[in-house]
Amino acid sequence: MRPEDMTPVQRIERSIQKKYLKTIWNPFVGAIQQYQLIQSGDRIAACVSGGKDSMLLAKLLQMLQRHSDVPFELKMICMDPGYRPENRQKIEKNAALLDLPLTIFSSEIFTVVQKVDGSPCYLCARMRRGHLYKKAQELGCNKIALAHHFSDVVETSLMGMLYGAQIQTMPPKLHSQNFVGMELIRPLYCVHEDDVRAWMRSHQLEFIQCGCPLTENCPECSPSGESEDETGGSKRQEVKRLIRQLKRNHPNVEKCIFQSMHNVRLDTVLGYAYRGEKHSFLDDYDA
């Protein structure tokens, strides 16, 4: 079929498996295989916030479901935490354009966090996660898929070191501690944000960013840091700028940071915590 004879969604899907095969589709499938994110019989809830990353994730999972040898069920859920009407309309419009059958449900999260002193972002993120788990369970799902990507993983790890005084990664999958039998997976784990932006711009797509009435462009409020503005004053934006500066002289710096999370030398670590228990290199230093 010629491109001019295709519908917009057909052109979008074709570009993912042609133009963006090496930068988006292959890393997406590779992460699922490498980290064993999807097993036969899974019922997965793709969590859509309305931003570029989550919309792309939903489309990728939809395409994978059609062609995968591993059968799984897929639901697409979108929580409206109190979006302005124009933001909700944009989500619905993009879902129709991408042929994504969204189940949209409402909550009062924005109303609640507006009453919080200081930054509401942490509380907002935790409340969002809880609502998504609960809705996924109601739909019979055993997993939720979030749209954190390679760049989120690198940035979050650096933020932990620079501002949290700890070495902590963002794992590709997690068992929920509060929702028994539920698991969180991150299928975009190996997809770079710059490639998501390239895909979005090539199709002239426009997605919402944060949508929060308090901090409209705050990347902390978005499940996957979907704001494109890197001029803000948040810690994540500071790290984004630092990485871009480092890449000028060391283009592979992100890859090195990412690989370091897979190559931890425990015999050189001064201290670590495992399942809530702290350990020191002194524990068995003389052993």
Helix % is: 40-55%
Average pLDDT confidence is 90
Write down the domain tally: 1
SSE order, one letter for each helix or strand = HHEHEHEHHEHEEHHHEE
Count of alpha and pi helical runs: 10
Task: Please report the first level of CATH classification, the CATH class.
Answer: Alpha Beta
- Beta-strand share of residues: 5-15%
- Which runs of at least 5 residues are low in confidence (pLDDT < 50)? 219-231
* DSSP strand tally: 8
Radius of gyration: 20 Å
Biggest sheet strand line-up = 3-2-1-4-6-5
Find the structural class using helix and strand composition. alpha/beta
User: Could you give the distance between the termini?
Assistant: 69 Å
Name the CATH architecture. Answer: 3-Layer(aba) Sandwich
Question: Secondary-structure map with pairings?
Answer:
Layout: H1 8-17, H2 21-34, E1 43-47, H3 52-67, E2 73-80, H4 85-97, E3 102-106, H5 109-113, H6 121-138, E4 143-145, H7 150-164, E5 173-175, E6 183-185, H8 193-202, H9 235-249, H10 253-260, E7 271-274, E8 277-280
Parallel strand pairs: 1-2, 1-4, 2-3, 4-6
Antiparallel strand pairs: 5-6, 7-8
